[in-house]
Amino acid sequence: MMHTRFPVLRSCLVSLLCLAATTAAAAEPLRVGMELSYPPFEMTDAQGKPTGVSVRLAEGLGRHLGREVRIENIAFDGLITALKTRKIDCIISSLTATPERARSIAFSEPYLRTGLALLVAVKSPVESAADLDAPGRIVAVKKGTTGHQYAATSLRKARVLVLDRESSAVLEVAQGKADAFIYDSLSVYQNHRRHPDTTRALLRPFREETWAIGLRLGDDELRDAVNEFLKTFREEGGFEKLGDEFLPEEKAFFKARGIPFVL
Amino acid sequence: MPRWLAHLIVVALFAAGIALAFWRVGYAWNWAGVWDYRQKFVQGWLTTVGLSLAALVASIAIGGGAAFMLRSRRPLVEAAARTYVELIRGTPLLVQLLIGFYVVASAVGLENRYVVGVAVLALFSGAYMAEIIRGGLDAIPKAQLDSARAIGLTPDQTLRLVVLPQAVRIVLPAVAGQLVSLIKDSSLLSVIAISEFTLAAQEVNSFTYSTLESYLPLAAGYLALTLPLAAVSRWLERRFRYEAA
To answer: What is the pTM of this model?
Structure first.
């Protein structure tokens, strides 16, 4: 028997606290990290709210897990650090699954197939990725991307410009300061459409990649739940709907040329 | 207590506090990956040293020139300097770099990004330097200038013998502070793909995912540049010291 002044009151308070703790844990928001500067996957609408394919995926995941979703806008090359230091719970930011990254974080099953392509300056002699590694070639990449990793490991003779934003890299190519920008084929296509006279697009990927959701190593419970969500989302035709909503033109364009683009 | 001992105790306490914070967080150190890239760090550091030195010298020259223009009685000259100072001080360095390199330099045909980077950085720091130097020059009482004229000194001699010795002593702490800021602001040159020290650390972080192991050497590298500068400034202050009337 508890020898306290107010035994009933104390038990009530303790059970209330336990109830609050469990409900708080269940309702803990899912913090999703992404860089909102990559339309149409991660972007903001006219009112400044996050929108895009990845945001829809995040919302779907939140519904599946029964948790509120909070989108954290973090620079791309800081996403893995944010995940490892527990500032976010997962990364849904068009993140390519690579063996190097898999040493630091865990990946879900892939949800999109794409590849590295080239946005080439109109006056440059570059016709393929093989032409890049020659003295005198200048190649632009965005910091922290697989294009950056490819340039660091495979381009020994060319000069590599490491930029922190896609827009700067595109400007470098459009102004002829760089021969090519290594980026994913979809973005290369979109940037070429915006700069039709100053750039060429070599869209067939010279290296195929898949995108997956990034999770902390050891967070197996969340990973299994995410994989389950991806499976049901695809079965329900969720990815088809996203492709039709955000990328109808690109889907048709890529399909017509037989270039992999599978959402 | 001797001064050096007091300084040592304070620094040791500070370092102990930082070490305690790291220990509490339980950070898993991985120095091997960063050690592999040490050459990248060294090259980046040397680039930063070169860029900072060039911008440093240029900004003092630009700031000095603009300070004299600000005090000019000719309206167009003063207006030009005032516009320069307010515009450059009032806009972010990031914006100046992006517009300066991708718009202005391209229009003028200047392709070398290192030259453009140093120029933008020097112009940025020069605007702050101009106000600092102008303040020092204005602080000389008019009575001294009148006395100098009374004893027959030419304007040039007045500047050299009366104004500058006093003005230099007044502006030295602020100028040193501005130069220290310039060294750290040079890290922003990475946005136009200049491979300086901060970009090197960020690249190593991208490859090894060892964030703190990349950024702690970065902090140490910048301290290695700014601490000597501060020490030189203090030495110069002692040299220029004199008993005021």
So the answer is: 0.82
- What domains does chain A contain, in order, with CATH numbers? 28-111+212-256 (3.40.190.10), 114-208 (3.40.190.10)
B192 chain-A contacts, CB cut-off 8 A: 163, 168
B192 has a chain A CB within 8 A of its CB? yes
B41-76 pLDDT, tens per residue? 999 999 999 999 999 999 999 999 999 999 999 999
Tell me which residues of chain B, numbers 92 to 111, contact chain A at a CB-CB cutoff of 8 Å: 98, 102, 106, 111
Provide the residue ranges of all domains of chain B, joining segments of one domain with +.
Answer: 37-239
Inform me whether the C-beta atom of residue B22 falls under 8 Å from chain A C-beta atoms: no
The CATH number corresponding to B37-239 among 3.40.640.10, 1.10.3720.10, 1.10.150.650, 3.40.50.720 equals 1.10.3720.10
> How is chain B classified by DSSP, letter by letter?
--HHHHHHHHHHHHHHHHHHHHHHHT----HHHHHHTHHHHHHHHHHHHHHHHHHHHHHHHHHHHHHHHHT-SSHHHHHHHHHHHHHHHHS-HHHHHHHIIIIIIHHHT---HHHHHHHHHHHHHHHHHHHHHHHHHHTS-HHHHHHHHHTT--HHHIIIIIIHHHHHHHHHHHHHHHHHHHHHHGGGGGGGT---HHHHHHHHHHHH--HHHHHHHHHHHHHHHHHHHHHHHHHHHHHT-----
**For A238-255, how does the pLDDT look when each residue is reduced to its tens digit (9 = 90+)?**
998 998 899 888 888 888
Of B98, B191, B206, which is closest to A77 when you measure between CB atoms?
B206
The whole-number mean pLDDT for each consecutive block of 10 residues of chain B, a chain of 245 residues, reads 92 92 77 88 95 96 96 96 97 96 92 95 97 94 93 91 89 93 95 94 86 89 93 88 64
